[in-house]
Amino acid sequence: MVTRTEGRIAVTNGEAQVWTASVATLFPEMFPGPLGHSLAGKALAEGRWRLTTVNIRDFARDRHRTVDDAPFGGGASLVMKPDVVDAAVAEAGSRCPGAPVIYLSPRGRLLDQARVKQLAAGPGVVILCGRYEGVDERVIAARGMEELSLGDFVLSGGEPAALVLIDACVRLLSGVMGNTESLAEESFEEGLLEYPLYTRPQEWAGRAVPEVLVSGHHEKVRAWRREQMEQITRARRPDLWDRYAARKAEKA
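Structure (tokenized):
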């Protein structure tokens, strides 16, 4: 099987494969949700990307459609059963061949723009949305799932995180964003946070737009924006600043 990418559409054996998000969830009605609106919704309607959901409960094996059970070793909450989850993920994966299987979890590696760009350049993503206390570790290992986290906080389930991940990827797909130049100027693209933004009116509530931005001097504007990006990143995200400074020193 030969696979390559053209723009953001994978091509396998000469046939275009639209970027696909295949989501295994207990609440398929939460999708597309906000992804059905604005740029992502328009792109979905135009067929620039595809969304499919798999109801995990459909793979339960008893008449009560049980998807969870008490944890071995004790605990206050319940754990999603490996056999049920495995069957649901297998179905979700069959709808997006070759895509990584991602389990959104607070203990996962922090999602960043670099990983988002990698995912957007591939065939799509298969996402497992956990609930309750979490998912049986054995199915995570058996499926070779990549665990990703949005940050150091806990949600009631993986669905909101899945919406965020999909949106971050979809906006990078070819033809989704109206002005592609804006993508290169966003936060994290150079390892820095974005510079401050201003629009009309030029003065508002006693606050004026920085003079350099209305000077018409493009080089001075670029220099000011770079300075602001560095100052803001250094003050607000020292972790990003340290990595940026290290890369800058290596190139010097």
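The two ends are 43 Å apart (CA to CA). The helical segments are 38-45, 82-94, 113-120, 137-142, 159-170, 181-184, 218-236, 238-251.
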